[in-house]
Write a structure and sequence with these properties.
- This protein is of the alpha+beta class.
- It folds into two domains: 159 residues, Up-down Bundle (Four Helix Bundle (Hemerythrin (Met), subunit A)); 79 residues, SCP2 sterol-binding domain (Nonspecific Lipid-transfer Protein, Chain A), CATH 3.30.1050.10.
- 55% of the residues lie in helices and 12% in strands.
- It is built from eleven helices and six strands.
- The strands form two sheets. The chain has a four-stranded mixed beta sheet with strand order 5-4-3-6.
- Strand 4 and strand 5 form a beta hairpin.
- Helix 3 packs antiparallel against helix 7.
- The longest helix has 24 residues.
- It starts with a helix and ends with a helix.
Length: 252
């Protein structure tokens, strides 16, 4: 439990420190992607927090959320002013932490949440919230600091849920190819296999010649669709393969 809670708490505190000094004008400036404002990102995280807590409650009690619950939450947060979205997010973030802390070991063990064809246990569901929060925090930070990277405090935990996330993120691009990617800080090796109909990512045990070498945080951003040329480290080995890999991971 602590393995996911601590990086999530770090991300919550990091985002709070980023947004506390923002002016009304900065709340309305573009985040990442540019069609979203910083306030839009905060609204998305706030509504997602409310929906996450309801998802935990439903998984624990077995009672489904009220019909139309998610849409009602989105509507509520979308209707807020940018200032209200900014002001209300910290409490929503803290409610997520509090709900996770309140779970007993027995409750954590029986959590099952269905997302389409995938059924998530506690680690999977909490890992998705960590992923969402950490990357949207980067979306805000990079608008304020173009050189922003994912903090080391969350990278290892994000790698732990990367293969699950790639099941949503990877899209076939019509090619048939295999790429081996080796990361640094920490060192990991991954294989990306492409067919015209499918794209998969798996971790490789042992040494294998790498087609691409890059920092682990940059590889995470690649899989999440946040490694455009403007935000790519200059020292990536095998950078000539990145355009194709970007097409496989367009973001979500």
């Amino acid at each position: 439990m602590t393995e996911l809670l601590e990086p999530l708490r770090y991300s919550v505190e990091q985002l709070r420190s980023l947004i506390e000094p923002l002016s009304p004008e900065q709340l309305r400036m573009s985040a990442y992607p540019k069609e979203w404002t910083i306030a839009d990102v905060l609204s998305h995280l706030g509504s997602g927090a409310v929906i996450f807590v309801q998802g935990i409650d439903s998984a624990v009690t077995g009672d489904a959320a009220p019909e139309g619950f998610n849409q009602s939450v989105w509507n509520e947060w979308d209707a807020k002013s940018p200032e209200a979205q900014w002001a209300d997010l910290p409490a929503a973030d803290e409610a997520v932490i509090a709900r996770l802390l309140a779970l007993s070991p027995e409750e954590r063990a029986r959590i099952k949440v269905s997302l389409g064809p995938i059924e998530l246990d506690y680690d999977g569901f909490a890992g998705l919230r960590l992923s969402e929060h950490a990357f949207h925090t980067w979306d805000v930070e990079v608008a304020l600091d173009p050189g922003a990277v994912l903090p080391t405090e969350v990278v290892d935990s994000l790698l732990g849920v990367l293969q699950m996330v790639a099941r949503f993120a990877a899209k076939p691009n019509g090619s048939a190819a295999t790429y081996v990617v080796r990361t640094e800080d920490p060192v990991r090796t991954y294989r990306i296999e492409l067919t015209p109909e499918a794209a998969t990512l798996s971790e490789v045990v042992g040494e294998e010649p790498a087609d691409v070498r890059l920092p682990a945080e940059a590889f995470l951003r690649l899989v999440y669709g946040r490694l455009d040329p403007e935000h790519t480290p200059v020292d990536v080995e095998g950078a000539e393969h990145l355009d194709e890999l970007r097409s496989v991971f367009p973001g979500f």
